[in-house]
Amino acid sequence: MKFQGAIIKEQRVTFAIVIVKKQIVDHKTEADKAIHVFQPIFPGIPIVLMAQDSRGIPTYYGRQDISQFMANIPIECVPFKEYTIS
User: Fold this and answer.
1) What residues have CB less than 8 Å from 58, skipping those under 6 apart?
2) CB atoms within 10 A of CB 22
3) DSSP the chain
4) How far apart are CA 72 and CA 62, in angstroms?
């Protein structure tokens, strides 16, 4: 499986962002399942999911303080890269 994600260290907090489909972020149960799936890839750090709408506007799901912080960061500034897991 391939996915886009980023590890960010900001204000003494390290966290991961994973890009998912909007339908996952829009449903709490699905979003919680996705975070659980990605947790072994990013052990010990909080995971925030990010999805974009049709206009490219991001929506975040995860720890509230991190989600609010990311809502104020331009998406172009996030160092996303492709991850591959088996």
Assistant:
1) 50, 51, 52, 70, 71, 75
2) 14
3) -EEEEEEEEETTEEEEEEE--HHHHTSHHHHHHHHHHHTTTSTTS-EEEEEE-TT--EEEES-HHHHHHHTTS-GGGS--EEEE--
4) 15
Place of tokens 């890269």: 81
Does residue 67 register a pLDDT over 80? Answer: yes
Share of the chain above pLDDT 90, in %: 91
Q: How far apart are CA 25 and CA 32, in angstroms?
A: 9
- Provide the token pair at 67: 């989600």
Q: What is the pLDDT of residue 85?
A: 82
**Which domains does the chain carry?**
2-84 (3.40.1350)
Residue indicated by tokens 């994600």: 5
